[in-house]
Design a protein that fits this description.
The protein is mainly alpha-helical and 47 residues long. It has one domain. It contains two helices and no strands. It is elongated and about 60 Å long.
Length: 47
């Protein structure tokens, strides 16, 4: 079907892996920063 063809086109897009790896790296940085922020707020509430 045309849907399968589109999936194949996207999956073979040059540089896709690098783009996804970069996005994952950014998400991990955001998650770490968010966790750090929330831990700081929790500590303030515990005091």
């Amino acid at each position: 079907t045309s849907r399968n063809s589109l999936v194949k086109d996207v999956c073979t897009h040059p540089g896709l892996y690098d783009e996804l790896a970069s996005i994952l790296n950014l998400i991990e940085k955001i998650q770490k920063s968010s966790n750090k922020y929330l831990d700081t707020k929790r500590q303030l509430l515990d005091d």
